[in-house]
């Protein structure tokens, strides 16, 4: 018999709300990500300024993510998430009505503050998942958001074709409203902590763990390299390949499809479950392959396939989070998640600055340089995995329930 479908997909009410809230967040991101650099350029920014705008939120991310754990302990996770995502939604609306690239500063600030929701949500999931923590992380931060990230560019592409690029940011604001609804239904209770935990949980103690340091450093390098190559892919496809913005937005959904397919493969391969860094090496290798295709191929069907490999960026990021959640001491997990978002997000924000300068010299340079760096990183990732050894089942990506398979 078929199992009865439930709105929370077997996660329970608390984590079910988080699941759909994350779907809304990634739906918002997917609505505008593919045309974000095109919109900046359309509002009068030269290509070097495009990279600066794309990366400028990195400084603001550090300011917002740094005190996230302390603020959550004092004021509560749900309240901070709601405030952060409201500000992000207002930033998206401001981008929809902007008439000059300088007005996009509101969007940049709002997006940086909105990123506060990620480490807070990860902490909330960790506190409420019980013995099924990895299963909860897989569904809430990988599979569900990736599906939303695959669908939203299709809807956005159709809206852009009819009403122009402004429509993408309106759709993003609507998706943000959906996420706010489900975030508001989360429990506001805070986990009770002992006085010992309260005094020893800080960033310095978190970074004393050598495994945590290695994973964070590796994450920064991998995300930076991949973001360096992917940041200007939409601009490259428009300027060099002559694709329309609506087409770029639509085929951008293939990246999320690639993330879903890769996640399902990991869920069914025991070795990748026990050696997540091997999965990361494969994921970043797929990104390098896709960048090579973007640089050398001009057939539309090749570009569509290349976008599948681009999904390795977010697959690798998700595997870093899953691994970190298992190797980090419970007392420091909230700050480890914050550091994870700070490192990954900073790399994702700063890489476009270098990409913009390289693109100004020659459009293909960001793709070529990123591919070379990724190829150098792959053996380093494999070496770190070898030194860590198998995680012995601690990092297990669970099988997807039949009702959502």
How would you sum up this structure in a few lines?
The protein has 405 residues and is mainly α. The chain has 22 helices and no strands.
What attributes characterize this protein structure?
405 residues, Growth Hormone, Chain: A, mainly alpha, 77% helix, 22 helices
Task: Give a written overview of the molecule.
The chain is built from 22 helices and no strands. The protein is an all-alpha fold. The chain has one domain: Growth Hormone, Chain: A (Up-down Bundle), CATH 1.20.1250. Helix 6 runs antiparallel to helix 8. The radius of gyration is 20 Å and the shape is globular. The protein starts with 12 loop residues before the first helix and ends in a 17-residue tail after the last helix. The C terminus is likely disordered.
Q: How many H/I helices?
A: 22
Arithmetic mean of pLDDT = 82
CATH-defined topology? Growth Hormone, Chain: A
**Given the helix and strand composition, which structural class is it?**
mainly alpha
Question: What is the highest CATH level, the class?
Answer: Mainly Alpha
Q: What is the strand tally?
A: 0
Outline the secondary-structure elements:
Layout lengths: L12 H20 L3 H7 L4 H9 L1 H9 L2 H8 L1 H20 L8 H10 L2 H12 L4 H31 L2 H19 L10 H6 L2 H4 L3 H21 L2 H7 L5 H7 L1 H16 L1 H5 L1 H21 L3 H11 L1 H16 L5 H29 L3 H24 L17
């Amino acid at each position: 018999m078929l199992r009865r479908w439930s709105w929370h997909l077997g996660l329970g009410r608390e984590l079910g709300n988080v699941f759909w809230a994350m779907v809304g967040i990634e739906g918002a991101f997917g609505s505008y990500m593919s045309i974000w650099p095109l919109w900046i350029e359309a509002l009068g920014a030269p290509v070097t300024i495009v990279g600066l705008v794309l990366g400028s939120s990195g400084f603001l991310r550090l300011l917002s993510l740094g005190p996230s754990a302390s603020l959550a302990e004092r004021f509560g996770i749900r309240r901070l998430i709601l405030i952060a995502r409201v500000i992000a939604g207002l930033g998206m609306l401001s981008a929809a009505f902007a008439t000059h690239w300088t007005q996009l500063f509101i969007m940049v600030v709002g997006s940086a503050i909105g990123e506060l929701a990620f480490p807070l949500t990860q902490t909330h999931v960790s506190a409420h998942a019980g013995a099924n923590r990895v299963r909860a992380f897989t569904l809430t931060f990988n599979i569900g958001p990736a599906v939303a990230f695959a669908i939203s560019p299709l809807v956005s592409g159709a809206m852009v074709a009819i009403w122009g690029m402004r429509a993408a940011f309106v759709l993003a604001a609507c998706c943000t409203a959906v996420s706010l609804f489900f975030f508001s239904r989360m429990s506001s209770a805070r986990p009770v902590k002992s006085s010992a935990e309260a005094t020893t949980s800080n960033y310095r103690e978190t970074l004393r763990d050598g495994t945590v340091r290695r994973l964070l450093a590796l994450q920064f390098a991998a995300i930076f390299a991949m973001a360096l190559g992917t940041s200007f892919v939409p601009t490259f496809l428009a300027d060099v390949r002559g694709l329309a913005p609506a087409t770029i937005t639509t085929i951008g959904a293939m990246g999320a499809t690639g993330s879903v397919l890769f996640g399902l493969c990991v869920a069914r391969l025991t070795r990748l479950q026990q050696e997540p860094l091997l999965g990361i090496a494969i994921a970043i290798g797929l990104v390098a392959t896709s960048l090579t295709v973007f640089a050398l191929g001009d057939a539309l069907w090749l570009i569509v396939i290349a976008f599948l490999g681009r999904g390795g960026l977010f697959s690798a990021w998700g595997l870093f989070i899953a691994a970190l959640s298992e190797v980090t001491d419970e007392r420091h997990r909230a700050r480890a998640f914050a550091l994870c978002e700070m490192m990954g997000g900073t790399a994702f924000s700063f890489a476009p600055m270098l990409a913009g300068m390289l693109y100004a010299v020659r459009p293909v340079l960001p793709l070529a340089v990123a591919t070379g760096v990724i190829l150098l990183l792959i053996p380093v990732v494999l070496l770190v995995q070898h030194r860590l050894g198998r995680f012995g089942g601690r990092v297990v990506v669970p099988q997807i329930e039949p009702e959502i398979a």
